[in-house]
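Dear H.,

Thanks for agreeing to be a second pair of eyes. The structure we're designing against is below in token form, covering all 422 positions.
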């Protein structure tokens, strides 16, 4: 049987934009792997009437309802009470849970439990209790009228702990299908161009399905299959991934990988090579992305943020004649910066970025969005020129960082480097 789910997040702070609804993302990802279709996300404030309306709508269109938030001890934590009223469930005090909450306050917080926490030990009669080892609000699940209702705490670390320990086993028993997805990551082709190449194929796909998602500075394609087993779903996805790779070529930089930095890290490690960076307009973004990865010290030697022209000359050793003749934003300077990074750090490969991030043209009237990427290697020095146009400053910087990582990726895999891509 195929199940449909709705996730209802309870919390005025989400509606006000004070916090992000990270629970819904986490739950959707988990339910997808369990073969449960998540068709609706709802957010409602701490208001019993509006929550009741949301529940009445959800029970008519979904057979699994998951709520997050509103299980605390304060006056506005009314999720349990409202849900029980909506589904005709009786709240009863669980003395064993109350004892656990009291013990948690004594052992973890070293204070007596406030009396208003008693309501956290009140749960629907006959429900399945979800233990909360990292907080005071237990969760629970019950079935009424063919609808399974699961109540989870709002704090993300509590919600995730309960999800892994209790919710996933509960839901796994309800579903006999699995949903498997493959994320095909690309850089160098816009979403419209990707869609144009694959539109006819995507439009006629049902299971597996294929969809594009524009991320900042790159495009992700997600291929998804539903089947009776993980192996069967993966077998259905294999030809889809192969077809996308064939259609898009070398703009595909990986499948089920986090980003370009991760790909470069693994390629460098496989080839026992080291990398150094020299950055100007990106202000250290390339180095930041690389050093965010655990264990990257085995391949990354270091970097220089050479924002001033004098730093390019004095630290990286860019010849003053190049700077005077061609300027800081030029192919010649990008090449010299990459060579300087490689020389001063002893790295096998040096990558550099210099360009105009805006908001205005530079002193040589170079346009906003013009960026040069240099790459110094044991096989010579290369350069890519890109022009992303008058985009936002942060978008130009992020694109430039992606270009830098892309040229590293291309060199390490034997692909063409120089051609600019936006």
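And this is the sequence the design step returned. I haven't edited it by hand at all.
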């Amino acid at each position: 049987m195929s199940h449909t789910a709705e996730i209802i997040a309870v919390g005025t702070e989400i509606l006000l934009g004070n916090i992000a609804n990270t629970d819904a993302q986490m739950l959707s990802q988990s339910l997808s792997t369990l073969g449960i279709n998540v068709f609706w996300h709802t957010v409602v404030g701490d208001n019993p009437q509006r929550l009741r309306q949301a529940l009445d709508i959800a029970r008519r269109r979904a057979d699994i309802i998951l709520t997050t938030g509103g299980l605390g001890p304060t006056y506005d934590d009314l999720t349990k009470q409202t849900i029980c009223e909506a589904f005709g469930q009786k709240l009863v005090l669980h003395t064993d849970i109350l004892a656990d909450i009291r013990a948690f306050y004594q052992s973890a917080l070293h204070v007596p439990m406030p009396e208003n926490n008693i309501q956290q030990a009140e749960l629907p009669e006959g429900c399945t209790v979800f233990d909360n080892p990292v907080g005071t609000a237990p969760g629970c699940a019950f079935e009424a009228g063919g609808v399974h209702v699961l109540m989870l705490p709002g704090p993300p670390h509590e919600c995730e702990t309960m999800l892994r320990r209790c919710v996933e086993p509960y839901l796994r028993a309800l579903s006999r299908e699995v949903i498997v997805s493959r994320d095909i990551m690309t850089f160098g082709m816009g979403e419209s161009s990707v869609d144009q190449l694959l539109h006819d194929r995507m439009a006629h796909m049902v299971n597996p399905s294929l969809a594009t998602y524009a991320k900042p500075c790159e495009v992700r394609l997600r291929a998804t299959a539903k089947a009776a087993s993980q192996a069967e779903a993966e077998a259905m996805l294999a030809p889809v991934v192969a077809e996308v790779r064939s259609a898009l070529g070398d703009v595909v930089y990986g499948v089920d990988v986090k980003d370009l930095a991760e790909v470069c890290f693994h390629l460098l490690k496989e080839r026992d090579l080291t990398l150094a960076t020299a950055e100007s307009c990106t202000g250290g973004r390339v180095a930041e992305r690389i050093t965010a990865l655990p264990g990257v010290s085995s391949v990354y030697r270091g970097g220089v943020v050479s924002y001033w022209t004098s730093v390019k000359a004095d630290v990286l050793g860019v010849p003053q004649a190049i700077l005077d003749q061609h300027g800081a934003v030029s192919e010649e300077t990008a090449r010299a910066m990459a060579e300087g990074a490689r020389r001063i750090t002893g790295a096998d490969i040096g990558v550099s970025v210099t360009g105009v991030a805006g908001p205005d043209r530079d002193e040589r009237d170079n346009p906003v969005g013009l960026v040069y990427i240099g790459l110094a290697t044991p096989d010579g020095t290369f350069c890519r020129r890109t022009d992303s146009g008058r985009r936002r400053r942060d978008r130009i910087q992020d694109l430039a960082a992606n270009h830098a990582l892309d040229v590293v990726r291309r060199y390490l895999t034997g692909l063409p480097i120089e051609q600019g891509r936006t």
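Two observations from my side: The chain has 14 helices and 17 strands. The chain has a mean pLDDT of 93.

Warmly,
E.
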